[in-house]
Amino acid sequence: MASKTFVxxxxxxxxxxxxxxxxxxxxxxxxxxxxxxxxxxxxxAQRKAxxxxxxxxxxxxxxxxxxxxxxxxxxxxxxxxxxTLYQYDQLLRDWNRAYTxxxxxxxxxxxxxxxxxxxNDIQRIVSSGSGxxxxxxxxxxxxxxxxxxxxxxxxxxxxxxxxxxxxVNDMLTALTSAHKEIKAVY
Length: 186
Prior knowledge:
- It is a single chain.
- Helix content is 69%, strand content 0%.
- Helix 3 runs antiparallel to helix 4 and helix 3 packs antiparallel against helix 6.
- The chain has helices spanning 2-20, 38-46, 72-97, 101-126, 132-156, 161-184.
């Protein structure tokens, strides 16, 4: 009788532990308990910081500013890029204050959303424009979004948290660089 009770108790415990995990997803860098585990702490030591932006810098691309007659749409796109970089900088400050990998991962997702939304807005703005600068801005945004999509596919098939974090950093670098280039178009 005791062995039947023991087997039943063991099977109930196993079933409960399996069902407890149903519907939950493991967040990158966070242990099953949601705590900042030793694994997450070691991953944090390996985490590269997202790229920084200098909001006061004179816009330049590869050492020289791009010159062309400016249009209203290009000016709007430049302002949108500057606003997006400002929002990104605010999120970067939050990222620097975050203590856990879970928080940093969530902030990085918000950064990616902000940067991609900004590029989509910029494309929408300049699509009604004309001229070399408007086309150049559209192409910069398009290349960055294509690069982002390629990296996103790589992220999807990455094997480790560390590899995913490097890919996210590459995404952030590509997107912020595009906004900096757009801000430099004249």
